[in-house]
Amino acid sequence: MKTPASLNFGHAPETIEFWKRLVREALSLSTPTPFYIFSALPIVERISELENAFTAAGFGTKNSKLKIQNWLSCKTQPVAPLLKWWREQNRPIEVVSEFELRAALKEGFAPEHILVNGPAKHHWLPKFDLRELAVNFDSPTELAKLLPRAKKLNWRCGVRINTSEEFDPESPQFPTQFGFTSDESVVALKKLLRAKVKIETVSFHLRSNISSAQIYERAITEVAEICRAAKFSPLNLDIGGGLPVRHVLTRGGKVFDGEFGLRAFAQKLRQAAKQFPGLREVWLENGRFLTTSSGALVVKILDVKERRGLRQLICDGGRTMNALTSLWEQHEILSLPERSGAETLTAVCGPTCMAFDQLARTPLPRSLRAGDHLIWLEAGAYHIPWETRFSHGHAAVLWHDENGLRRARELQTFENFWNQWK
Ligand SMILES: Cc1ncc(COP(=O)(O)O)c(C=O)c1O
Fold it and tell me: Both 75 and 171 in a single domain?
């Protein structure tokens, strides 16, 4: 099956073959649909690309001790085998909730390899007596409530700063709800310095799919001014996530990563870091960039309809249950068996009773039929966190890494679906 001429997702032929091979293997294991397959191998590629760009820009070389640290954004892909695999690479994790912290601990992360972000954590973080955690405070109230614990437990503290580059992407005239304003940040940093706690980090996360490196640069300059005003020299500059996703198009057919070059980004960061004398590490918390291409969703066509010039494939998974991102994104769709020939405008629908449940509306071969499998690529980030149990149970999950392919979660049973009620 070919991508319609109008849409080019830019996948290498080897990538397409990789996913088809994995899905064939999953089907040969009688995996029930719908299911996701997540693989560590595309993550390895992304991480090395990122790290190579930073090395080329002079991070971690003989002349510069400045290092980068990649934190796994747990919220983006809270998948147990991924956490375990990441920990085995001796890499650290970023969490934003009690459940995520518990998951990180359960998968064996040491507290000093866990960074706690997110708003209002004074309501749950006191349940834990964990020493040496990295904690980025989010508000004056949170700081006041948690400061005694930060001191007692020797936390590595940071302050999240809400720069003027951070706004609600859907209504850019409004700021987000995260972090301290510039004035509050200066007060918070001075307070932490006076309290003689371990204050090490200044942090921001702007939003997802940041379109150019200059946006990061401007935010860093604002943060540097705040540090100067507070007479504070951070050891770590945490620039959050936000690197743009690849091989995904907007519903209007545009790429997200058009202007973004990783090498230029790393060089700009290297320059911008000079505004912080004594800086040791730049922290990155990328979710979409690292994990989007590490997953695929597989659904089966159950029924085919045609009306008013539109062919409709009714599948056992779709947007409502498995792929909320399809609301604003288009992803490449493959089929097994491969189908070709004349194409017609086709809606790929999920099984729920909502017109909303439409994974794609795009030209696809007329030869697709009930019983075929469709593979929705780039299902690795923000699919599991946004899955629903709308009329049906959760999909099965397979995990793939250097040790092969295995079932990591079963298709939800009716008992599991219903037994939560008392
Ligand atoms: C604090 C923080 N860090 C990192 C991320 C990951 O962002 P992205 O997936 O755009 O890289 C998020 C996403 O919401 C976030 O809130």
Answer: yes
